[in-house]
Amino acid sequence: MLRSFRFLCACLVLAAPLSLACALAPGASGVASSKSHHDKLEPPQETGFLNRRIELDGVSYRFQVYLPEDWRRDDHKLWPIVLALHGRGERGSEGMWQTQIGLPQAVRDHPERWPFVIVLPQCPVASVWTDPVMLALAMAALDKETEEFRGDPDRTYLTGLSMGGYGAWELARDHPHRWAAIAIAASGVFWSYAPERRQQESTLPAEYARALGHTPVWLFHGMDDPTVQPRQSELMFEALRASGGHVRLWLFQGLNHDCWTRAYDEPELPRWLLAHRAPENTGMASSGSANAARAVSGASTAGTASGPSAAAEPPPLAERLVIPFHPPAIKLAPAALDQLAGEYDDAKGHPVVTVFRQGDALFEKSLQGEIAELAAETSTVFFYLNGSSSTRLTFERDPQGRTTALVLNDDRHEERWQKRMLTAGR
Known about the structure:
The chain is an alpha/beta fold. 28% of the residues lie in helices and 27% in strands. Strands 1, 2, 3, 4, 5, 6, 7, 8, 9 and 10 form a ten-stranded mixed β-sheet that branches. An eight-stranded antiparallel beta barrel has the order 11-12-13-14-15-16-17-18.
């Protein structure tokens, strides 16, 4: 009897897993089916600065591509795309150093301004961008990312700074119809490592201008640049103007070689790029990826520009502006400055700065005792006389005209400090 009971228990134990498996079979099948279904979906695409690699003539190169946060694999839009060439100091083989300055830095500060796919190849230390192999590398990286990330062939832009500007001028001349617009900072066509090119000063700029035709070009240069003389941009401006081109030249007062930080921080620059599209019937010389991109989803578009797939050539334009480091300062009466003076606290009531008048000038004193002179742009907007060109201090007033707060804006963020009001007992 006992042996029969044990046998019956053993049968029940063996049967339990089988019964459980049968009971779960429909659900298990559904899970497997669901997993199989999800495996067919494309994985979500990471955005931001991404590590990339490309092989050219048997050599592998690392580089970066930037994808805006709202880039999607499944929306089939074409995106404006920029090829950006870095300067001499960012050369290397790690593939990332070129994201530290220039356009990548501006994108980090204001990603909302730059709805572009941005291709950032890197030039090795032993090379320069004007080497034929490096120019081929730049174009190969652009073609690769245009195909994979649906770059718009009608909104393909070129930019470069310093040594990268040398390379950008070469690509502009070699592929003039590839670019909807070009922006170059602190550069020219007379390479510092090829002094013999200076002997062609009377003819070389005109050669580039003839090749570019009406392709829009925006040049930036620091007026105190000791590394690449501002005359280089002046010569290119004059050549493009003489040939009936479309050119802007902004010369920054008080800036040395690093004018690119100011240039790429200019809010108008990305809007200006997007306002231009490649002219019709110009063709794409370098690869078939552009034609493939045009065919994606009926050539849908992304970014702030929209409309036809291509545009007519822009009209001739020659704009030359000298941009002051600071706006002209105005003088305010001592009584007006006294209304601004006082102690200013943060939102939690902690002291931040003290503003005081000395003679006919206004000063700011930090908690650490550092003193900076403020200059008036208007009666309520000031800037640091010896500080950043973009930082502004705005004094807020109530309806009765009393100063209530001080707002600091440095183009990246904003801070508001409340003016401490004197009590009757003080």
